Amino acid sequence: RENILKTAKALVEDTKLLVSGAASSQDKLAQAAQSSANTITQLAEVVKLGAASLGSDDPETQVVLINAIKDVAKALSDLIGATKGAASKPADDPSMYQLKGAAKVMVTNVTSLLKTVKAVEDEATRGTRALEATIEYIKQELTVFQSSEVPEKASSPEESIRMTKGITMATAKAVAAGNSCRQEDVIATANLSRKAVADMLTACKQASYHPDVSEEVRERALRFGTECTLGYLELLEHVLLV
Hints:
By secondary structure, this protein is an all-alpha fold. The protein has helices at about 1-20, 25-55, 60-85, 95-120, 125-145, 155-180, 185-210, 215-240.
């Protein structure tokens, strides 16, 4: 646990250098990017070792830890991209606001990782912590879904329909976890919910940009994807409350 906390702290320092590097020389920016890449690799290794130390009889909690480091790595990748876009730009440039937003997400995900690491050893809070992390993850995925960014590829409406089945299964699991209040059921719900909602949002956005889809249908599909996600988030909030 101490190794993870120490390495995460080093990554936060790298993040600060990365953000400030956007306004400095290319050399300093390159050094900050390289340092953060090295630190995230070290952090991934110590988190994997931490997950392994839990033992194979608790795979769901291992998944919670791995998901937490994946979120940090993704946020760092987005932050490096935002830093690249903001390099040498004036303070009021839109890319600077994107950089600040990416830095905020990065800090949120590192904080979430630290909370998860601390909660792992406490069986009474493992499930609730996993659920909190999943709720935060889904909110971040929804923000990406609602952005104007066009997906790299389009998919068929049938694929989008197929992905909604995962939401149905996850909903049933969430209701069961709310009824049982067992930490292991809540952890399993958190892990399943992450994947189900992320898959649904990806498929929904890709289908909405299918060549045969009209502007009106696209808007409706995107609206219903958002409403479905908000409804599911409300369900998870209730499970957390219970």
